[in-house]
């Protein structure tokens, strides 16, 4: 390949104020992190509630959660995003619709759409992991808790979930990383996160290879860092000898 | 203290696990329930705290009807301790936290008071030095003693034991039986499903023999071991008392 790499491009002025192209990447990274973290909070909370519902004795709660999972897992993420961004605002009450479309900054409304979309999408996947985590526990755990008079919410909070979460930290970590990677769909509705900034840099400078190489490195380093953090978390909450955690 | 009036239970349509059970356990009594496997012993004691529902009849614990839908089953369970064959300690909590969880969460005991009570109980079962250990670091016998302490921490009126020594290595059975014997001496009302005939003979006030969901014998240990009334109980005794299974 005959290509003249020019890494100095990132330090060149964009022509807007004193901005250099690297600033675009930093802004983009900021959006990516903000998007991913807020989506993850939604996914973790909602996913846990749904996962618990799937294991409850009551049939209605379990069925509701099942329908939710099937719906959000079987429609492509991008389709879901377009629904949230282009269709859902039209279904809002008129005042809310106008506020969303006209009063909000376009970046804010896009941010809200992606966060909701990615949060609800990922919740379906978190739900399934929480459910398997709970179902992997011996039946005697819940029984012993009930036999001592603990109420259902206490049984989940104090006995089942603390163990289930320890079991599912590894798959949950990869879901957490997926959120960061999936957040790149936001570029398709004009939110200037990392991927969108990369594309824009490539178009402005014609240094396509450098721009995408840098983006690749940033995504990679970011995800590696998250993975290491999660591994640290896993070690910290490890219970001596709990078989489900595997290893020593 | 505990009364069964014409209790019947089925698993599904076909399997009649408890047949016309009538039974009374008085306060302070120690009753051993024995019988061949599949005879319904575990099911029988599990109905007392509604871990298993019943289809017919009535079960009373003191003045509370267990199988009445209006009964607050959690309240009842606070007063009925239960010890499982497989201990079922919470592996993510220390020994002390295993014991204090229910008193703090259910009885709303202050953490300090719960701790104190737990430590007293650990002394009683001889495991005060293990208070900060995790269940997986304890032997089976130690885990079962902690499980007994966990049950006692709720200050129950009755303690139910579901084959408490069946999952233990032989050399650990003695330490658990000793704790149970001490408990019996302190006046606790106990119902114990077990194959430990030595315990039945020495500690029990009454022995109940169950076969195919029916109570065949309900008598003093002495009578049970020397003059069993039914062929099935004689056969059972021959099997469990045989020095060797040949």
From TrEMBL, chain A:
Cross-referenced Pfam families, in alphabetical order? BPD_transp_1
> What InterPro entries does the record tag this protein with?
AA_ABC_transptr_permease_3TM (IPR010065), ArtM/GltK/GlnP/TcyL/YhdX-like (IPR043429), MetI-like (IPR000515), MetI-like_sf (IPR035906)
Q: Which UniProt keywords apply?
A: Cell membrane, Membrane, Transmembrane, Transmembrane helix, Transport
- Residue ranges constituting the ABC transmembrane type-1 domain according to the UniProt record: 29-230
- Which SUPFAM superfamilies has this protein been placed in? MetI-like
Would the keyword Transport be found if you checked this record's keyword annotation? yes
Q: Where are the transmembrane segments?
A: 20-53, 65-87, 107-127, 208-229
Q: Where in the cell is it found?
A: Cell inner membrane; Cell membrane
Gene3D superfamilies (alphabetical): MetI-like
Regarding the membrane, this protein is recorded as: Multi-pass membrane protein
Q: What PANTHER family would the database entry show?
A: GLUTAMATE_ASPARTATE IMPORT PERMEASE PROTEIN GLTJ, MEMBRANE COMPONENT OF AMINO ACID ABC TRANSPORTER
Sequence similarity = Belongs to the binding-protein-dependent transport system permease family. HisMQ subfamily.
What name does the UniProt record give this protein?
Amino acid ABC transporter permease
TrEMBL record, chain B:
Keywords, alphabetical: ATP-binding, Cell membrane, Membrane, Nucleotide-binding, Transport
- Which source organism does the UniProt entry give? Chitiniphilus shinanonensis
Name the domain of life this protein comes from.
Answer: Bacteria
Show the InterPro entries listed in the entry.
AAA+_ATPase, ABC_ATPase_HisP-typ, ABC_transporter-like_ATP-bd, ABC_transporter-like_CS, MetN_ABC_transporter-like, P-loop_NTPase
What GO terms are given for molecular function? ATP binding
Q: Does the keyword RNA-binding apply?
A: no
Q: Which Pfam families match?
A: ABC_tran (PF00005)
Domain annotation ABC transporter: ranges: 2-237
> What family does the entry list?
Belongs to the ABC transporter superfamily.
The identity of this protein, by name, is Polar amino acid ABC transporter ATP-binding protein
Q: Is ATP-binding there in the keyword field? A: yes
């Amino acid at each position: 390949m005959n290509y003249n790499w020019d890494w100095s491009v990132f330090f060149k002025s964009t022509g807007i104020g004193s901005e250099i192209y690297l600033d675009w990447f930093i802004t983009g990274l900021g959006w990516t992190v903000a998007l991913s973290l807020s989506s993850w909070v939604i996914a973790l909370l909602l996913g846990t509630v749904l996962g618990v519902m799937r294991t409850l004795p009551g049939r209605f709660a379990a069925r509701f959660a099942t329908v939710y999972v099937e719906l959000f897992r079987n429609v492509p993420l991008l389709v879901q995003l377009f629904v949230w961004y282009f269709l859902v605002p039209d279904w809002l009450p008129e005042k809310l619709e106008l506020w969303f479309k006209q009063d909000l900054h376009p970046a804010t409304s896009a941010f809200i759409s992606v966060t909701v979309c990615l949060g609800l999408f990922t919740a379906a996947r978190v739900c399934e992991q929480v459910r398997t985590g709970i179902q992997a526990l011996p039946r005697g755990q819940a029984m012993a808790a009930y036999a001592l008079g603990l109420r259902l919410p206490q049984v989940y909070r104090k006995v089942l979930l603390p163990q289930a979460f320890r079991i599912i930290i590894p798959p949950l970590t990869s879901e957490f990383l997926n959120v960061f990677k999936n957040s790149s769909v936001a570029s398709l509705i004009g939110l200037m996160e990392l991927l969108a900034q990369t594309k824009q840099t490539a178009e402005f400078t014609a240094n396509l290879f450098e721009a995408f190489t840098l983006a690749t490195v940033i995504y990679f380093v970011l995800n590696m860092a998250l993975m290491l953090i999660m591994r640290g978390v896993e070690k910290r909450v490890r219970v001596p000898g709990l078989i489900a955690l595997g290893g020593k | 203290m505990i009364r069964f009036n014409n209790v019947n239970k089925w698993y599904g349509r076909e399997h009649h696990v408890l047949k016309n059970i009538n039974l009374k356990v008085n306060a302070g009594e120690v009753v051993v329930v024995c019988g061949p496997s599949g005879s319904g012993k575990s099911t029988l004691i599990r109905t007392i705290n509604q871990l298993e529902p019943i289809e017919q009849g009535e079960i009373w614990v003191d003045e509370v009807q267990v199988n009445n839908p209006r009964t607050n089953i959690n309240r009842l369970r606070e007063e009925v301790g239960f010890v499982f064959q497989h201990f079922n300690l919470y592996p993510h909590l220390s020994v002390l936290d295993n014991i204090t969880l229910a008193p703090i969460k259910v009885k709303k005991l202050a953490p300090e008071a719960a701790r104190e009570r737990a430590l007293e109980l650990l002394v009683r079962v001889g495991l005060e030095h293990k208070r900060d250990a995790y269940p997986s670091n304890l032997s089976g016998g130690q885990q079962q003693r902690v499980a007994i302490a966990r049950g006692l921490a709720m200050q129950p009126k009755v303690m139910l034991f579901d084959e408490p020594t069946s999952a233990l290595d032989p050399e650990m059975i003695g330490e658990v039986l000793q704790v149970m014997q001490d408990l019996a001496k302190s006046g606790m009302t106990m119902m114990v499903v077990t194959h430990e005939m030595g315990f039945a003979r020495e500690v029990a006030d009454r022995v109940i023999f169950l076969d195919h969901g029916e109570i065949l014998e309900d008598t003093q240990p002495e009578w049970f071991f020397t003059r069993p009334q039914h062929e099935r109980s004689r056969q059972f005794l021959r099997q469990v008392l045989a020095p060797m299974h040949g």
